[in-house]
Design brief:
Elements (H helix, E strand, L loop, with lengths): L2 E11 L5 E9 L6 H16 L25 E8 L11 H17 L4 E11 L5 H18 L2 E9 L4 E9 L16 E5 L4 H10 L6 H8 L5 H10 L3 E5 L3 H12 L2 E4 L8 H10 L3 H7 L5 E6 L10 E7 L3 E4 L14
Helix pairs in contact: 2-3, 2-6, 4-5, 4-8, 4-9
Length: 342
């Protein structure tokens, strides 16, 4: 720990008639916690840690950010992440949490067929939280932003008893109409891209006190949404789309309700990956519960006209029909997925 010596104006009699100056040690070490920095020091540290928001007309540091809107439309989505509900610090590193917080919001933007451009980050943390944790969190945000070419353009900070992140993402449609959940029509095919069930399997593993297999545990800690496929789906003429955040059945249920249709899924088209089958065997559970009801992978599911030639990255898993709700092989799926307040 670095120190310096500062004179203290006190004099003592040495017994030989001379005066001696006493010295004391003053700690000037680097700050270690949020409390050491204070609010404005924290804000300066956050701004310094993130890449400059070059695309913003006005970036961080003013009362609000000012962004250019090339076609006059902005896609916006916001999300909350609360410690011990959406993440646990003993399960995930700060870097993982930064990646996940950004990814959840970017997935919503690409599900509209838009390109993520900007993030606003609200951060509430305990004052005693170490700055090394904060720096790792910010690095996670910056790295996930780099994946899609987005920037953090502003936010807010506060003290709290636990960590809370409130993230708003903004996106650009580049002149295209948004792909909404209300556009599915009877005769459309239902297709997915990205992983299903991996994050839920990772959560199940962690909940039992294990830390492996690392593939599924890492899927829970740090999702990998198929970002580029959202814009591709829009260009292919997707009629409706959403990201799978709460579970395939429950999220398709929202899409079916918005479109006034029924979604029929084929179980054989949703065969769990071999790794999920291995984990489910070890935990004595059905892997289809993770595939159909597990969230947090942020796969994309979309409906397309039947004649659309889909790339290999998309897999057809069902059809849109007259009616309402979601069926799996003609039956209701009992384990629908995550819902808050239940």
């Amino acid at each position: 720990m670095a120190h310096t010596e500062a004179p203290r104006p006190s004099v003592s009699d040495s017994g030989r008639g001379e005066n001696r100056t006493h010295w004391r040690l003053v700690d000037i070490s680097e700050p270690r916690t949020i409390a050491d920095l204070g609010e404005f020091g924290l804000i300066r540290r956050i701004i310094a840690a993130l890449p400059p928001a070059d695309s913003a007309v006005v970036g961080p540091g003013d009362d609000a950010a000012v962004l250019a809107c090339p076609d006059g439309q902005v896609v916006a989505s916001t999300d909350l992440l609360i410690e011990n509900r959406h993440f646990r610090r003993d399960w995930s590193t700060a870097n993982d949490i930064g990646h996940k917080a950004a990814a959840r919001n970017f997935a919503d933007i690409v599900a509209m067929g838009a390109h993520p451009r900007s993030l606003l980050v609200g951060l509430a943390v305990p004052p005693e939280l170490e700055l090394s944790w904060l720096d790792s969190l910010l690095a996670g945000f910056a790295e996930e932003c780099a994946e899609v070419g987005a920037e953090v353009v502003g936010g807010d900070v506060s003290a709290a008893d636990s960590v809370l992140l409130a993230v708003t993402a903004l996106g650009d449609l580049a002149g295209r109409p948004p792909v909404r959940m209300s556009g599915a029509r009877p005769g459309n095919v239902v297709a997915i891209t990205g992983r299903l069930g991996w994050a839920a399997a990772g959560y199940a593993v962690l909940s039992r006190g294990f830390r492996s297999p690392v593939q599924v545990v890492n899927a829970h800690r740090r999702p990998e949404p198929p970002y580029s496929e959202g814009i591709r789906a829009a260009e292919l003429g997707a009629t409706a789309m959403t990201d799978v955040s709460d579970g395939l059945v429950v999220d398709l249920g929202h899409l079916a309700e918005a479109s006034g249709v029924r979604i029929d899924l084929r179980r054989d088209a949703l065969e769990p990956a071999a790794k999920l089958r291995d984990v489910s065997s070890a935990l004595n559970t059905d892997p289809m519960m993770w595939v159909l009801g597990g969230g947090d992978d942020y796969a994309l599911v979309a409906t397309f006209p039947n004649e659309t030639r889909l790339p290999d990255s998309w897999q057809v898993v069902g059809m849109v029909n007259e009616g309402s709700g979601v069926r799996v092989d003609g039956l209701r799926w009992a384990h629908a997925g995550h819902q808050h307040f239940r």
